[in-house]
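User: Can you model how NAP sits in this protein?
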Amino acid sequence: MSEPILVTGGTGVLGREVARCLLAPGREVRILSRRAKPVGTPYAWHTGDLRTADGLDAAVAGAGVIVHCATTLGAKDAATTRTLVEAARRAGAPHLVYISIVGVDRIPLPYYRAKLAAEEAVIASGLPWTVLRATQFHDLLFRGLEVQRRLPVVFHPAGFRFQPVDSREVAQRLAGLALGDPAGRAPDLGGPEVRDVTDLARLYLRARNRRRPLVPVPIPGAVGRGYRAGHHLTSNATGHRTFEQFLADRT
Ligand SMILES: NC(=O)c1ccc[n+]([C@@H]2O[C@H](COP(=O)([O-])OP(=O)(O)OC[C@H]3O[C@@H](n4cnc5c(N)ncnc54)[C@H](OP(=O)(O)O)[C@@H]3O)[C@@H](O)[C@H]2O)c1
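Assistant: Here's the modeled complex, given as structure tokens:
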């Protein structure tokens, strides 16, 4: 029996795929979630909260690896990651694996700043660590378009390109890193194509069989400049599944 692996955020888009990838006979996979244990879950369930640290010590006790996929809206990820690091250190020296985003160091969004500070907390933790940065997930772009489905137009950030990646491919990479030796900063993971946001919106409309005018929204300041300069893109286009293929399954 290998040491247990804890997945924080194991109910989220990425975390639930990571947990699925890690599940194997003889391996305990734990999930930390604020939710109550679902009936019939194959995981060792720990109800807890990274903001208050409730349930955290029990979740990390004896874990050999922690894959940290939990994220809070806003800019709380630095504080919750520090809370996790402290609990992990009290528990021993588990390998801490963290998922981050390409460009967190170059685009000054509050959420990105918090993720960068979270990366720094992982690196300075004294624990064995791995950090993987990925580009935007297909799911994120899809949700950004789907949320506008009742509008007569589709708004999009003017002049942006994206390199969306399949969250299942990110999960596979993350699970592989979790099972390997601590890797430090792993090579970034990006989707197979860089496409103008208008192309992606058109692919979405075609998949949904809708016609809508596309309305560009200028994004001012350093954030807009950072995205227009492509600081969220990577030359490591190691993902395979395209947005079009994702849409074909999703719609
Ligand atoms: N989405 C993207 O395009 C993208 C791209 C690159 C990297 N990433 C990174 O990948 C990670 C996962 O993103 P995602 O889109 O999969 O997130 P998500 O679907 O929004 O899931 C968030 C997870 O965080 C957990 N969580 C939130 N607050 C918590 C708290 N206070 N205590 C404990 N757990 C808490 C939630 O669990 P419960 O609700 O069950 O408590 C949920 O499982 C994030 O770090 C994100 O920055 C995302």
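A couple of observations from the model: The chain has one domain: 5-250. Residues 8-9, 11-15, 32-35, 49-51, 69-72, 80, 99, 101, 115, 134, 136-137, 140 surround NAP (CB under 6 Å).
User: Helpful, thanks.
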